[in-house]
């Protein structure tokens, strides 16, 4: 394929209204890894049917933090749907972590959830079940087909904005109003 895209790790993919894959409609995905072999990321704006309290209970991790128990776990994507992924801003040496970008990490090990349950976890964290994966050249092809906008990762979008506002907020970071685009139907 002649089209070349830079490494998109530490970028948000914002689904354009023309994206027809129902698993990613109106989604925002953080690209955690991107190289010649493909890309991996997690969707950061779609709640799952679970709360963090339910996930911790299933893992037999106790917490007395009622607020933490009610935090929604996100549907991170259609790959490895039984596996947990934590996007966070804590540089400590967790058992299994990947540096996504400056001050942003992806951790898949139990120790971070145990720390969160004790009240000693990252200041900002998102917990997802599942992830999104693209084979070699697949993400580049989707970008060439105008399925996604790319936006530098933004902690406010990831950690502060309400889930239902992240799609439009992420796009607005580069001056795009998704509600004014051809193909958009419905309301936020």
UniProtKB/TrEMBL annotation:
It comes from the Bacteria. Transmembrane segments: none annotated. Pfam families: DUF179. Gene3D superfamilies: VC0467-like. Belongs to the UPF0301 (AlgH) family. HAMAP family: UPF0301 (MF_00758). This is UPF0301 protein ABB22_00430. It comes from Stenotrophomonas nitritireducens.
């Amino acid at each position: 394929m002649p089209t070349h895209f830079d490494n998109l790790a530490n970028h948000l993919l914002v689904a354009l209204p023309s994206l027809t894959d129902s698993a990613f409609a109106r989604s925002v995905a953080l690209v955690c890894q991107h190289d010649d072999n493909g890309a991996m990321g997690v969707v950061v704006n779609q709640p799952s049917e679970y709360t963090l309290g339910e996930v911790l209970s299933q893992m037999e991790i106790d917490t007395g933090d009622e607020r933490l128990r009610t935090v929604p776990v996100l549907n991170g994507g259609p790959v490895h749907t039984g596996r947990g992924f934590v996007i966070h801003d804590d540089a400590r040496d967790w058992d299994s972590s990947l540096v996504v970008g400056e001050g942003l990490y992806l951790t898949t090990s139990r120790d971070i959830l145990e720390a969160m349950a004790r009240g000693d976890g990252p200041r900002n964290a998102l917990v997802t079940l599942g992830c999104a994966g693209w084979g070699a050249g697949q993400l580049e092809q989707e970008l060439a087909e105008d399925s996604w906008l790319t936006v530098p990762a933004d902690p406010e979008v990831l950690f502060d904005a309400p889930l239902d506002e992240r799609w439009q907020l992420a796009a607005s970071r580069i001056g795009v109003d998704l509600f004014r685009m051809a193909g958009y139907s419905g309301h936020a």
